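U., I forgot to send this yesterday:
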Amino acid sequence: MKEKLYSSIQNLTNVATYHKIYGLSQYLNSFDYLFMPSNHEGLALMPIEASLAHTPSIINSCPGLKDTLPQDWELSVKNNSIKEFIRLFTNIESYSYTYLSEKAYKFAASHFSIKKMQFEYEKIYEQQF
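Result:
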């Protein structure tokens, strides 16, 4: 989808693209948004890390990826709809960045914090013995 994306955003002044960045998680808070047009994922760590850095994600609502954000996530499209992604990018300034950043952060912190995951693993281990 790289060429389709580049041709779709070429006239937009509010979008920038970058080549591969190593150790990206340490820079996530310097980006406005994370864009993930995946078709399927395991548990997607990038949007979790982005949310914890107060960086909202624009995603395709696919298993593994949609599970990292609230069910009513405003920046989600179905079936990798290019038309819907373009609509989101075109209207991105109409969304409250502060609201989305905080909503994503609260969801990630409550579902994927080390403390939460440790607690859930301990519950599983206790059931096994």
